[in-house]
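Chain A, query sequence.
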Amino acid sequence: MSRSLTHAARTESIARWFFLLLAVAVTVLFWSVVHPYAISLVTAGIVAVVLSPLDDRLRRVVRHPRVTALLLLALVFFVMIGPLTTIGI
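Chain A, predicted structure.
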């Protein structure tokens, strides 16, 4: 009886280690795909959080989500890209 419990415990331990190593491998592969885009993703997240209150105000005034999105896109384009084109980058 104790032999079967030991075998079951060993099998469970092997399964846990296997899934832990599998999770680590998937995480490493995921990071290797996301790594080149990490700065862009973080910057986009920060811009989205910063512009969220402005989006809420515009939605109350405009009442059309597509128009609000277009206005915010134009604002971000002119605020971020506009100065870069004037200095020649």
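The radius of gyration is 25 Å. The CA atoms of residues 16 and 75 lie 51 Å apart.
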